[in-house]
Amino acid sequence: MKKVYITGVKRVGVTGGAGFIGSNLTSRLISEGYEVVVVDDLSTGLKSNIQNLDCEFHEVSITNAKALRSTLKDCEAIFHFAARGSVPRSIKNPVATHEVNATGTLNVLEIARDSGAHVIFSSSSSVYGRNLELPKNEFMWLGPLTPYAASKLAGEAYVQAYGAAYNVPTTLFRFFNVFGPRQRPDHEYAAVLPKWIWLAMHNEPIEVYGDGTVSRDFTYIDTVLDASVDALRDKVITNGPVNLAFGNRIQLIEVINILKQYFPELEVKFREARPGDVKDSQNSPELMRSLFSAVTPKAFDLAIGETINWLMEFGHKVANGPKTLD
Description:
By secondary structure, the protein is an alpha/beta fold. It has a domain of 207 residues: NAD(P)-binding Rossmann-like Domain (Rossmann fold), CATH 3.40.50. 38% of the residues lie in helices and 17% in strands. The protein is built from 10 helices and 15 strands. The protein has a 7-stranded parallel sheet, with helices on both faces. Helix 2 runs parallel beside helix 4. It starts with a strand and ends in a 12-residue tail after the last helix.
């Protein structure tokens, strides 16, 4: 792993830029003076997330190689954050998941191979799968349990291969359960935190799959943005993955207890565990801290409080978006 300090990068592409993480990143990049090109097919992203941002928007799927090249060919760096998310969704339609997450990544890398753009890629902690050892580190064996995890691992492999074979400058992050403002709360495949907050806001019960002892290394959106912008500004080139998480392992029952401080009448229903769900997740943050020493995570209770406040005030802007059709 190395840092190569550079200046002068101005035009940056963000795939998935109308989604939760992508739109937050787009806003941050614009605030720091970058010219941003957003690519999103709006299958799950929302145009309203970027409508007031001074960016160039193209409604394009990353599976459309020709259109993608036309929009990103002049970008000096590309944040490749577009993906077909959700473990259950991938189990329902594995081929579609592969086409977006693996072939779509290959399309982005082909553009960078010609242009020399720095590619910053978002993978997922789900690639560890059946490896139950905790905490996780970047040198452990991987065992994907679902088509989603397999497709993200395929993306990782292509990113590393293009770095080695074609000298494409790449940064490979593995995200761990990112949450925060602008995350959609109300569709079938919504992440657990916004989904639970949304249901609690509307006096509806929440469902827990398992006994509540499932744990996650939740990562607040600001942490992701800080590391991502640092990777761009300092051109952090990674020969392998960097786990973007700080070892803050939290059980879902602890999350419920925090939610009850805001919603005392919260009703909880326990269900059987779902196939493909990983029981526990926790990162060992040594590599992350060594490369991004200026990035400091916010305390979970403060971060979830900010998320609740945002959803209560602005949640209607990200609810009732496009349905996920498979």
